[in-house]
User: Which sequence fits this backbone?
């Protein structure tokens, strides 16, 4: 976006997200992995079922398989037991005028068209007394009722969940083609940052953003290249960006993207590449930058930890997932009543850290972008569009953290 330095207004959130998604291009290598290693990976194919699920008609109950033509529609019928069919055993054809003892999941024998549950029959030595009016098809799970052989199981770009692996396995697939893990370089800028475990001298703070980003990226199944802390100088920032561009698929930095004298990330990124986006109309997290450094995609996030978290979840995460090969799916947004009121009108779209209590959204008492503990306390984010007054009971959008942190 030409003239980023001269922007007079902030970029609306929706426009910023659209730009990120439109310019994210997947160019990753495809690899084949066994199912046990595929959870969280992004499909680089549209897998097809090798078999029907279930592969044959089977019993939904422990009971007795019968041909309803052998049963009376008006009175009980007594039939002998001609075979026993446990699950996993190939049955013989049903002898006319008999029934078969059958167990849940066992294949229906040829000639049978119903299963009568064991609680509904009466045992008479070697015979079984069936009630009248048994319906054909009762308690039978038909072949292919879950999945048809040759049907597409999942679309290209799906991020595989544990249940998806079960579906793939049930359809006969032992391995799948997925995109290689995205390599994400992270860097934390600031002379004030100290690693946990070291002494904290005057003017210093512990580096929480490093651990936020590491955890978020690893939960997304991406490889983290940690560039460590970068001192507040143009020389150090440019050197770190050069190294990150050489070793990663994408760069994510925190801090240094504002306009202070000690903020060098934005200017360094522009010196080594270009910016397509800077400053987004959201709260917390206005100073977000996006562009490229030496041809490598770059996202600069604000340094305050709550801002880092919110901007990563709402902007960086969708972009990174698209780069990883995933199809974009907006996070689930529920409508929940506000448990608070606010007369102050904001010009930026605001995301409050909130809990759901008695079906109402209750905000954390301190919404400062430096208060990270609010995120651990909260259930998710309440979305307040710009220009509105909030009265208690008003419907608000609510995005659970389960949609953003996994």
Assistant:
């Amino acid at each position: 976006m030409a003239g980023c330095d001269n922007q007079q207004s902030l970029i609306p959130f929706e426009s910023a997200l659209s730009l990120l998604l439109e310019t994210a291009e997947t160019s990753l290598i495809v690899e084949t992995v066994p199912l046990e290693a595929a959870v969280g990976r992004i499909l680089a194919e549209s897998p097809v079922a090798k078999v029907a699920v279930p592969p044959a008609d089977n019993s939904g109950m422990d009971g007795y398989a019968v041909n309803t033509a052998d049963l009376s529609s008006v009175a009980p019928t007594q039939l002998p037991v001609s075979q026993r069919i446990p699950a996993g055993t190939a049955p013989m054809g049903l002898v006319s005028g008999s029934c078969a003892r059958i167990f849940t999941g066992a294949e229906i024998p040829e000639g049978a068209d119903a299963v009568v549950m064991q609680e509904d029959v009466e045992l008479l030595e070697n015979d079984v007394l069936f009630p009248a009016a048994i319906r054909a098809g009762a308690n039978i799970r038909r072949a292919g009722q879950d999945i048809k052989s040759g049907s597409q199981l999942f679309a290209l770009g799906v991020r595989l969940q544990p249940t998806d692996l079960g579906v793939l396995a049930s359809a006969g697939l032992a391995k799948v083609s997925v995109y290689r893990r995205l390599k994400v370089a992270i860097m934390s800028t600031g002379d004030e940052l100290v690693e946990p475990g070291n002494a904290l001298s005057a003017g210093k703070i512990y580096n929480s953003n490093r651990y936020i980003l590491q955890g978020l990226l690893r939960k997304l199944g991406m490889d983290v290249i940690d560039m460590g802390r970068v001192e507040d100088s143009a020389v150090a920032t440019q050197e770190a960006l050069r190294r990150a561009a050489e070793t990663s698929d994408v760069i994510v930095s925190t801090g240094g993207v504002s306009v202070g004298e000690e903020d060098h990330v934005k200017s360094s990124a522009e010196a080594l590449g270009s910016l397509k986006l800077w400053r987004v109309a959201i709260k917390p997290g206005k100073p977000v930058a996006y562009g490229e450094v030496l041809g490598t995609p770059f996202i600069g996030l604000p340094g305050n930890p709550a801002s880092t978290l919110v901007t990563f979840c709402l902007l960086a995460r969708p972009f990174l997932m698209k780069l990883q090969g995933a199809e974009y799916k907006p996070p689930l947004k529920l409508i929940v009543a506000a448990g608070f009121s606010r007369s102050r009108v904001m010009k930026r779209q605001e995301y409050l850290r909130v809990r759901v209590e008695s079906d109402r959204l209750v905000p954390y008492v301190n919404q400062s972008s430096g208060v990270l503990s609010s995120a651990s306390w909260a259930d998710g984010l309440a979305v307040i569009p710009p220009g509105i007054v909030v009265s208690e009971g008003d419907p608000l959008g609510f995005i659970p953290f389960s949609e953003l942190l996994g």
Q: What stands out?
A: The chain has four domains: 4-28+181-323, 31-53+146-179, 58-141, 334-403. Residues 1-8 have pLDDT under 50 and may be disordered. Residues 305-323 form the longest helix (19 residues). Residues 31-53+146-179 form a domain with the Molybdopterin biosynthesis moea protein, domain 2 fold (CATH 3.90.105.10).
